[in-house]
Amino acid sequence: MAPFCSHPQSRLCLPWARPPRWDEDGFLADCHYTRQANQTVFAGIRAVPPGCLLFAKDGSLDIRPYWDTVYPAKETLADDRRSDADVIAGFRAVLDEAVAERLVADVEVACYLSGGIDSCAVLGLAQCHLSRPIRAFTIAFGEEMYNEESAARDMAKLVGAHFIPVPVSQQQIADSFADAVWYSECPMINGNGTAKYLLSKAVRDTGIKVVFTGEGADEILAGYPTARRDLILFNSDGLDANDAERLLSELEAANRVSRGILTPHGDIAPGLDVVQSRLGFVPSWLHTGSNVAAKLVPLLRNPVRERLARVSPYGELLDSIDILGRLFGRDPVNQSLYLWNQTILVNTVLTYLGDRMEMAHSVEGRVPFLDHHVAEYVAGLPIRHKIRGTREKYVLREAVRGVITPEVYNRHKHPFVAPPPHSGNDALSTFCQDVLRSPLLDDQPFFEPARVRSMMDYIATIDLAERAPYGAMVMTIVSACILQQRFGLSAS
Which domains does the chain have, with CATH numbers? Predict the structure, then answer.
């Protein structure tokens, strides 16, 4: 019987384990944002998919689903006549109950707090149930565009929480990036996971063992800018082309920190047409992932490029999805959310932005937005309750309006993104350059060192504003080098 572990690290350290090897298909899928829920980047190691049970008996394994998101058909949602007031009240009730249930603990429960509505909503509702000030910990970045300390401080003051900023510099991210990759056990496209690693360490150093987090709200409530882009392009029947172009321009202007990570930018990678042919549209987040892949594919070693030409990361993802049962006849926005939640939510948001960074320091993260009652309630809502005009998470804003600041209520989505290695002179840029100019790049099996170094030379010549979209590409390659070094991986 194959051993079971909570982390690949444990499996790879067993004395009888085979030497660790890369799963080439898993890594290439990760580069395209299409790694499936049961895939890892380690050969011979698979994950139990979310919402599933694994049964082991007489030497055989059986994986059975027990829960999944079920979006109603588009026509069913169109017939929903519930008033805004009824929908808002219903959502407030299920979310408040989810928060209250997660306050039950033998130890103090604190809260991770940003300037966004998700964590602010959780803090506001949690404080209503407590007679003591809840401790709220906020990452404070040095660059103003990425720093949410001021909005978080005002939020904590409004509800009477104890505000604790945790400064995180580019130097700290550079110093801890390799450790964060080790715990994440997968490539990281930004320093945000490392920032969560540092935050969790700071929280544990204060003696806190349990925290609320706001993860999952964007996944169920269509909070990312890609979901609003999908609405403009694929859900807005009869929208004038000029109006659509204007709305897309406004969306792009309001999400500068997301360029190249959460919003499309640049060329697309080969193979995306299979998504168009099978779904009838290309979800914007897959479009964005294709932009990242398009920057990575030319840098691959020739044998890897030849292998990629024979496989289809997009086709393999869609082959794993029950398209007829879960996507057919649904709103494009909901189809996009479902695919995101089967990939990015599992492999990114709940791993290197969540559980693995928290548990690296023995901190338990509690996620009210992913309570199944909350998720089921929201899945049954028409899109207009998730996105109203171009304002995301409408029902959440209205449900918690009385426990958040006006700034948070009116604020557009500001994704949790750390400053990328874009200036060329910051500590993170130096760290990336050091890794990619070292033998670590030569040792990994995916990227051709000469091509990577040539690309780094090119990036140094372009305008600072144009460098940010290359950050995800650079961090992916650096992550591959670190994974290679830390796990001692060989080619599959």
Answer: 73-420 (3.40.50.620)
CA dist 431 and 426 (Å) reads 9
From 435, 483, 436, select the one nearest 455 (Cα to Cα).
436
Spatial contact of 16 and 328, defined as CB atoms under 8 Å apart: no
Contact between 154 and 138 under an 8 Å Cβ cutoff? The reply is: no
pLDDT of the chain, 492 residues: tens digit per residue: 456 777 776 666 665 567 889 999 999 999 999 999 999 999 988 999 999 999 988 888 899 999 999 999 999 999 999 999 999 999 999 999 999 999 999 999 999 999 999 999 999 999 999 999 999 999 999 888 889 999 999 999 999 999 999 999 999 999 999 999 999 999 999 999 999 999 999 999 999 999 999 999 999 999 998 999 999 989 866 677 777 788 877 777 766 666 656 677 778 888 999 999 999 999 999 999 999 999 999 999 999 999 998 989 999 999 999 999 999 999 999 999 999 999 999 999 999 899 999 999 999 999 999 999 999 999 999 999 999 977 899 999 999 999 999 999 998 877 788 888 866 668 999 999 999 999 999 999 999 999 999 999 999 888 877 787 788 899 999 999 999 999 988 876
The identity of residue 154, as a single letter, is D
Q: Is 197 helix (H, G, I), strand (E, B) or coil?
A: helix
Nearest C-alpha neighbor of 384 from the set 95, 90, 74? 74
Give the C-alpha separation, 280 to 367, whole Å: 33
Give the total residue count for the chain.
492
